[in-house]
Amino acid sequence: MPRIRTKKTKRAPKGWKHIEDTLMEMTQKMRDVENEPHEGKRKPETVWPIYRLHHERSRYIFNLFYKKKEISRELYEYCLREKWADANLIAKWKKPGYQKLCCLGCIHKGDKNYDSTCICRVPKESLEEDKKIECVTCGCHGCASGD
Fold first, then answer.
1. pLDDT by residue (tens digit) across 130-147?
2. Residue 133's CB: how many other CB atoms inside 10 A?
3. Across residues 85-112, what is the average pLDDT?
4. In the chain, what are the domain boundaries?
5. Which of 104, 119, 84 has the alpha carbon at shortest distance from 9?
6. Which of 85, 28, 81 is nearest to 54 (CA)?
7. Whether this model's pTM surpasses 0.70
8. Spatial separation of the C-alpha atoms in residues 90 and 49, rounded to whole Å
9. Dihedral of CA 8/13/14/20: which sign?
């Protein structure tokens, strides 16, 4: 979530108006997801939409800066500083093999069985056919870059 703005916050750099509407729309979606009822869902399933929206917002800023080159470095750093995007997740996306990474929890080895990465990081070719892959942490269906 973005930081709460105080009176001392720095003014947004040039180009902020270009992306502000999309980011505010994503923030509204996040609020809607947080407020929707959780009855009938398993405990991890309640946070999966939040992970997806967090990924979507970070990917939007990543694509604008690195792929499309539509925003300036100053605006990109402003978005990272104000927590509009996850800087650690974007840093992983720039490394080979992590281009499609869904969340940092999938590569954190301490939370998984046998101190390994998440099942969604295994390429689909090496798994049995007709086996449904679903990450327990974030609910993704496979984020290995070899897919």
1. 777 788 888 888 888 764
2. 17
3. 88
4. 16-94, 97-147
5. 84
6. 85
7. yes
8. 19
9. negative
